[in-house]
Specification:
Rossmann fold; N-(1-d-carboxylethyl)-l-norvaline Dehydrogenase, domain 2; alpha/beta; single chain; 8 strands; binds nicotinamide-adenine-dinucleotide; 8-stranded mixed sheet
């Protein structure tokens, strides 16, 4: 941990126009949060259906605010209007800060970041919501790596206060300051952390998922493990948390962690080829039990 976000917060102009790449669980949540706190945001995806889902989720969350009397219908309409869905980079020339939130794959992210860099202005800040991939590594394809850093939100975005701001080897103070400022604008608590696979939170969390996976592979009952962890005092157990995160994201992020810390982390995915039992999380993924995103994971959802 380097410096508390607050030490950067006063050093940057506000973000007047944001952009997010990916309208999935995280991209949709980031768009909602930005819009709800008054910062207009372009939400870009490559699939029309994803944009529809992202907007549906935002409408649902604003609807709840309306039901609870926290917002009037005019306020809901105004805030929803802050989200501009798009399938193209057309208006990205006016964006001050972009959050990339596409799949957790270094090659895909590298290509998407290099692509958006062609459309934004020279002083725009690019950030990645990667869960695990090194920011220095993601910056390799960029022309302006000094304008790039990590901006790692947690799921669900509207409820989780923490945002990790990750400084890569070439990240400038100005990029960190702008990202910290945007996190604060969104009502979040930014913390500036060093760059390594998994940063701070997932460096702690993924070995926990790995331990859970081994326990399940050895025959433990996942519901029992969840109940025990709840009694231990955690708000939810590992199986439920994995359903929230998504098995695909957990497997991809687990692979990055295992590559980064081979001596300490068994991969959450893989296994099987060398005679070891397959990881429980990999088995879930292979059987399309992705979690809440497709309504079936460890638990079943409506
Ligand atoms: P998701 O699968 O729900 O969404 C990814 C979206 O990206 C999809 O809608 C897909 O169509 C879109 N996409 C793919 N390629 C694209 C491109 N070239 N341009 C624009 N959109 C594109 O995934 P998610 O759970 O939202 O995760 C996104 C990122 O956030 C990952 O890096 C993940 O590690 C990170 N993250 C996830 C969680 C979590 O709990 N799910 C938490 C923190 C961070």
């Amino acid at each position: 941990v380097k410096k508390k976000g607050s030490q950067y917060a006063r050093q940057s102009a506000p973000v007047n126009q944001a952009g997010v790449l990916g309208a999935g669980i995280m991209g949709g949540g980031i768009a909602y949060q930005s819009a709800s706190k008054g910062t207009p945001i372009l939400m870009k995806d490559i699939k029309e259906e994803a944009i529809e889902l992202g907007l549906k989720e935002a409408r649902k969350l604003f609807g709840k605010q309306l039901e609870r009397g926290k917002l009037s219908s005019e306020q809901v309409a105004e805030r929803l209007g802050n989200i501009r869905p798009t399938l193209s980079y057309g208006d990205f020339g006016h964006v001050d800060l972009v959050v990339e939130a596409v799949v957790e794959n270094p090659k895909v992210k590298g290509a998407v970041l290099a692509e958006v860099e062609e459309y934004v202005s020279e002083d725009a800040i690019l950030t990645s919501n990667t869960s695990t991939i090194s920011i220095t590594r993601l910056a390799e394809n960029l022309k302006r790596p000094e304008n790039f850093c990590g901006m790692h939100f947690f799921n669900p975005v509207h409820r989780m206060p923490l945002v990790e701001v990750i400084r890569g080897e070439k990240t400038s103070d100005a990029a960190v300051a702008a990202t910290v400022a945007y996190a604060r604008q969104m009502g979040k608590t930014p913390i500036v952390v060093n760059d390594c696979p998994g940063f701070l939170v997932n460096r702690v969390l993924f070995p926990y998922f790995g331990g859970f996976s081994q326990l399940i592979t050895a025959g433990a009952d996942f519901q029992r493990v969840d109940k025990v962890m709840e009694k231990f005092g955690w708000p939810m157990g590992p199986a439920y948390l994995l359903d929230v995160v998504g098995m695909d994201t957990a497997v991809h992020a687990g692979d990055v962690m295992a590559e980064g810390f081979p001596e300490r982390m068994g991969s959450l995915g893989g296994g099987g080829d060398d005679g070891r039992p397959q990881s429980a999380i990999q088995v879930m993924f292979d059987n399309d039990r992705l979690g809440q995103k497709n309504a079936k994971g460890f638990y079943a959802y409506e």
